[in-house]
Amino acid sequence: MPERLRRLALVVVIALGAIAMLFPFWWTFITSITPGAGFSITPQLWPDDPSLSAYERLFTERPFARVIGNSLLLAAITTIVQLFTSATAAYVFSRLPFRGRGVVFAVYLATMMVPLQVLIVPLFAQLRTFGLINTYLGALLPTFASAFGIFLLRQAMNQVPRDLDEAATLDGAGHGRIFWQIILPNIRPALATLTIFAFMGSWNSFLWPLIVLRSPELQTLPIALAALQGQYTTAWDVVMAGSVISVLPMLALYLFAQKYVIQGVASSGIK
């Protein structure tokens, strides 16, 4: 096959893949601006009489602004704390030798194999003992440490030459200065990648907030979206409007940090 035909075939395949990936988002947006839209097997590709009434209903009939604020608050705190705990722990596993370091790291990574459903009951019992049910802190505590984040940043730190550490040590720098001024600036792609993963994980979290947050004023966005679906009838334009809003922060964050994502994943060794 000539080179030109191979490139044309590659472009066609990529274009078809892009259309297949973007089509659900387009359908969601079109449904959100179609007043009175119902569920249909045949998708509507363009609205007959576009309107933003669904978005208006979303914010006037429900405390959706408070819901978005709750999700943003929890996601921001989770991301910041995960970055700190993951970076400090990764520095210990990467730069501070101690007996049994490999075993401890392997055991810590093994926790990634345990699904959240297994931990819900003991976590709920512990938080109830401390009186943290139906509080922001109760929703946040289990998210403060991330085995995946430690693994990601440790792999990135292992790529930083140790000669930089030795040179800084000769200049009188301690572990704190090496960590903040040498290591962190050199693993910014991995930090950006973890930022996206941590924010996305908290933003899309449904099961744990559903269990621990009881009051309507503490609801997060995924729970509020699930509540939009009625038992017998559903205003699909309102549901899709909420879905569009839920995508926007993640899209903005990814566009802001996209240049670091591929670099961070590639340097971590993850396939």
From TrEMBL:
The lineage of its organism: Bacteria, Bacillati, Actinomycetota, Actinomycetes, Micrococcales. Keywords: Cell membrane, Membrane, Transmembrane, Transmembrane helix, Transport. The keyword Transmembrane applies. InterPro entries: MetI-like (IPR000515), MetI-like_sf (IPR035906). Residues 68-257 form the ABC transmembrane type-1 domain. It is a multi-pass membrane protein. The keyword Phosphoprotein does not apply. This is Carbohydrate ABC transporter permease. It is found in: Cell membrane. The chain crosses the membrane at residues 7-27, 72-93, 105-125, 131-153, 190-211, 238-257. It comes from Microbacterium awajiense. Belongs to the binding-protein-dependent transport system permease family. Its main location: membrane. SUPFAM superfamilies: MetI-like.
